[in-house]
Amino acid sequence: MIQSKDTTITQNIDKTLNKGQTVVKRTTKRTNLVRSQNRTPEKETQKVASNPIANQEAESVMTSKEKKSSGKLKITFLGGVGEIGKNMTAFEYNNEIVVVDAGLTFPDDDLPGVDIVIPDISYLVENKSKIKALLLTHGHEDHIGAVPFFLQQINVPIYGTRLTLALVENKMKEYPDIKYRAIAVKPRNVLKIGNFAIEFIKVSHSIAGALALSITTPAGTVVHTGDFKIDYEPIDGEMTDLPRLGEIGRKGVNLLLCESTNVCRKGYSMSEKSVGRALDEIIKNHANNRIIVATFASNIHRMQQIMDIAEKYKRKIAFTGRSMVNVSEVAMKLGELSFNRDNIIDIEKVDKLADNEVLILTTGSQGEPMSALTRMAMGEFKSLKIRENDLVILSASPIPGNEKNVYNVINALYKLGADVIYDELADVHTSGHACQEELKLMHSLVKPKFFIPVHGEYRHLKTHKELAMRLGMPERNILLATIGMQVEMSANAIKEVGYVKAGQRLVDGFGIGDMDSNVLRERKQLAEDGICVVCVNINNVAGEVSGEPFIITRGVVYADEQESFVQDAKACIISSLKESDLRGVDPSVIRGSLKRNVSNFIFRRTKRRPMILTIVTLD
Questions:
Q1: What pTM, to 2 d.p., does this model score?
Q2: What is the DSSP string of 404-427?
Q3: Which residues pair with 362 in a beta bridge?
Q4: How are strands ordered across the β-sheet holding 390-394?
Q5: Phi then psi for 363, rounded to 5 degrees?
Q6: At CA 93, angle to CA 88 and CA 96, rounded to 5?
Q7: Which whole-number Å values give the CA distances from 287 to 279, 304, 315, 373, in the listed order?
Q8: Whose CA, among 271, 374, 516, 524, lies 20 to 30 Å from 360?
Q9: Phi and psi torsions of 75, nearest 5°
Q10: What is the C-alpha to C-alpha distance for residues 387 and 290, in angstroms, rounded to an integer?
Q11: Alpha helices in 111-160 (DSSP H)
């Protein structure tokens, strides 16, 4: 939980959010909410204002000189276009930059050993003196996962809702040396930073605390939707703020950046409450089974419904999976998740209860190899063993690329005797992203002059462009962005103006590398062709091989071929070295010759090019 040890600071910030009058100033006191230490005060005062007529307020905090400016807003796409994940966009006016989101994505199979993938922020580092703030739309990993790496190089204030900042704080515990300043905002607050006036707008998503942004500059207004859906039955009772979006649209919006994840799906996304009703029916009809539900740890509204259902049918609740435990604790402290503490039990006590008295909430809905559900399915989870009376509900859909892992887990659960219900069998999941009719409504309310689809692969962006054109937007007013593209926006035009260095950075343990890293190339070679180690001892005086060469291979030949392969390889090595006078020859020259000869021998024999390491010692 983001909570100040100095209560007066917390009270002052709460007054700012509730009354819209207090100026939030930098402090050097040590707190969790304001964590900056020994830093010089900012030249600009930063305001967070709460106002009933927010767009007028956003305009009023801009001077007449700013309004008359003929400058242009530059938008740089550093992630989230042409791909799913690692969302990051920079907005630049004159010598000021605000960054929206700092997300990650997970590696594909062609990135062996890589833990996560984050945006390349070289452009931002080069312009770090201009950067004034990092704005977070919500707390999913594809929007906040790269925050620690961003703050390591660019330490500026970060803004988001309380839950979003609490999830960031939880993440930052792994980076205790990074001190940062986090400022909580609420929907309809307006933040003034230099030439930028940013209004935060409530949207529904599969995590609480999600926001859209209205970014006003002297060059015009941009609406950035973040991730959203239009849920007419939201769990928290607060719909996407359609009236406010309509008001902003009537005032005039130059550019809409709208998410595209579900643009290929017709109709509307299903309400979260519909999932709750389906889960209620399933659990009621399996009154004698032990229930295990796997879902996304960040989907607090789903967790709330599952916990309410468990209490309704007098089942104790056990959490398992680190992220599930951490997020539930954070959400409970912030009041986003409410439950009877007496109904929560430790996972170790599950076996002491009857099957019809317990419900287990777990991670692993995506078949992650080390997740709790996967380890249960493989019989490797110490605290709980799957048995025949278990009902496992996967309350999630496989993310593209995870299908094989998910179905492997489902198959393993069936083999252990459990029954499994997943999205193909019942309405146990709904997306947090807008489908076509919801996207149409967003376009119709905002009424932008120009449009750039974001948050999707190229096929999503292209389909979203076609949807906007069907709604009447001229094709010349739509741009399809790619990673690194810079776009300039003025009052009456947008245009592509060039590219900056951008792309992927690979995080591997404590190391960060590039796509063209030799480490990655070597790993791929090892994975595809194996390795061969050759050790040769040379008598430097006689100029000949001393003893028999020593060869080790891994992943090069099958076991039944190994003995004959090694003998033939040794003969090849001895034969090739006999052709040369080795007296006084530099070992590096011998290693190079040896490597070429062994590589050619293996290719003739196996049609593979394994990694070859040669070791030459001299007597």
A1: 0.81
A2: HHHHHHHHHHHHTT-EEE-TTTS-
A3: 294, 320
A4: 344-345, 316-320, 358-362, 290-294, 390-394, 419-421
A5: -85, 170
A6: 75
A7: 12, 20, 10, 22
A8: 271
A9: -115, 125
A10: 9
A11: 122-126, 141-144, 147-153
Who's near 582: CB < 8 A, 6+ residues apart? 538, 540, 543, 544, 545, 590
Q: What is the mean pLDDT of residues 155-171?
A: 96
40's tokens = 């010089």
Q: What kind and span of H or E run contains 542?
A: none
Cα(314)–Cα(345) distance, rounded to whole angstroms?
13
How far apart are alpha carbons 499 and 115 in whole angstroms?
Answer: 28
**Cα(91)–Cα(267) distance, rounded to whole angstroms?**
32
CB atoms within 10 A of CB 558: 8
- Rg from Cα positions in the chain: 29
Tokens representing residue 293 in the block:
């539900």
If we measure between CA atoms, which residue out of 517, 497, 514 comes closest to residue 505? 514
Parallel/antiparallel/unpaired status of strands 253-259 and 448-454: parallel
Token pair in block for residue 518: 């030799």
- When mean pLDDT is compared across 5-9, 115-119, 164-168, 213-217, the lowest value belongs to 5-9
- Buried b / exposed e across 188-222, counting CB within 10 Å, b at 16+? bbbbbbbbbbbbbbbbbbbbbbbbbbbbbbbbbbb
Backbone angles phi, psi at 294, to 5 degrees: -105, 130
Using DSSP, state whether 515 is helix, strand or coil.
coil
What distance in Å separates the CA atoms of residue 330 and residue 166, rounded to the nearest whole number?
A: 7
- Does residue 475 sit in helix, strand or coil? helix
Q: Six-digit token pair at 553?
A: 């291979």
In percent, the amount of the chain with pLDDT more than 90 equals 65
Look at residue 558 and give its three-state secondary structure.
coil
- Which ranges of 504-578 does DSSP label H, i.e. alpha helix? 518-529, 559-578
Q: What is the C-alpha to C-alpha distance for residues 490 and 492, in angstroms, rounded to an integer?
A: 6
The residue with tokens 């204002």 is 49
Residue from 437, 335, 347 nearest 384 by CA? 347
Tell which residue, 194, 122, 197, has the closest CA to residue 154: 122
How many helices (H) and strands (E) the chain has is answered by: 18, 29
Q: Is 306 exposed, middle or buried (0-12, 13-18, 19+ CB in 10 A)?
A: buried
**Is the separation of the CB atoms in 209 and 161 below 8 Å?**
yes
Element (H, E) at 596: helix 587-606
Which of helix, strand or coil describes residue 279? helix
